[in-house]
Design goal:
This is Polysaccharide deacetylase family protein. It comes from Aquimarina litoralis. Keywords: Membrane, Transmembrane, Transmembrane helix. There is one protein chain. It contains ten helices and eight strands. It is an alpha/beta fold. It folds into two domains: about 45 residues; about 180 residues, Glycoside hydrolase/deacetylase (TIM Barrel). The strands form two sheets. Strands 1, 2, 3, 6, 7 and 8 form a six-stranded parallel β-sheet that branches. Strand 6, helix 8 and strand 7 form a beta-alpha-beta unit. Helix 1 runs antiparallel to helix 2, helix 3 runs parallel beside helix 9 and helix 8 packs parallel to helix 9.
């Protein structure tokens, strides 16, 4: 059972008992607002944290893996900067997973082809990655996933089965959309914040601190700062005997239909 269902059941039972207690003057009326506030905080955490499994199951790390394997993932491409990322990955003979935005694929189809040519894995990151996409209804969000699938398949002949929600946001509509499309939802447990943090050292420290077997690192192939961070990361992984694998290998799942 999803955590959301458990929280809702407990909240309803607690609310009913509290309401009865309020009616018989055993509790003050404002105690119900405390319960509502707690429910809102828990639900808000579930929305913002893809690892919580609050609305849907996501694969954010594989703690069961015994080998020193991790996965590096990139969001928001393809982008001209992606070509520089690919050069660094070639230099270290590393394969990664790229979660691509459909409208970026339309802009740079040749870069998408280059990613697949080098045997990296492509995942779905919606078509528009709109700033308000987490507010979309189920049907509209479903179309976002399907449209991204279509454009990726158009240029690679492969339909991705891996999906990462924009911003890592989840909610009931997104859960219903993913269920309808049949994708595996991929999260992360090492977030770089390379889109906001200006310091290479801070970013590198965030993603290498306490790095363990089965961890999933989130980077963005659209940012120039990521280039220098990536090279330092790959050197760190070499020194510490980690092997970088694609998401499908890390979780033993299918990457494409």
């Amino acid at each position: 059972m999803l955590i959301r269902n458990i929280v809702n059941i407990i909240s309803v039972i607690a609310g009913s008992l509290m309401l009865a207690a309020i009616i018989f003057d055993k509790l003050p009326w404002w105690s119900l607002f405390v319960l509502i506030l707690i429910w809102l905080l828990i639900t808000g955490y579930g929305v913002a944290n893809i690892r919580s499994g609050y609305f849907l199951k996501s694969l954010s790390n594989n703690s069961k893996i015994n080998q020193r394997k991790i996965a590096i993932t990139f969001d928001d491409g393809p982008d001209p900067n992606t070509l520089e990322v690919l050069k660094i990955l070639d230099k270290y003979d590393v394969k990664c997973t790229f979660f691509c935005i459909g409208k970026q694929v339309e802009k740079y189809p040749d870069i998408l082809r280059e990613i697949t040519k080098k045997n990296h894995v492509i995942g779905n990151h919606t078509f528009s990655h709109d700033k308000l996409i987490d507010m979309y209804g189920t049907e509209r969000f479903t179309n976002e996933i399907k449209d991204a699938d279509h454009i990726i398949e158009k240029y690679t002949t492969k339909r991705p089965l891996l999906f990462r929600p924009p911003y890592g946001i989840t909610n009931p509509n997104i859960a219903k959309a993913v269920k309808a499309t049949g994708h595996s939802v991929i999260g992360w447990n090492k977030r770089s914040f390379d889109t906001t943090i200006p310091s290479e050292k801070v970013i590198l420290r965030r993603i290498t601190k306490n790095l363990k077997n089965g961890d999933v690192i989130l980077l963005h192939d659209t940012k120039t700062i990521t280039l220098s961070v990536l090279e330092q990361l790959l050197l760190f992984l070499q020194r510490n005997n980690f092997t970088t694998v694609t998401i499908d290998e890390l979780f033993s799942i299918q990457a494409y239909a």
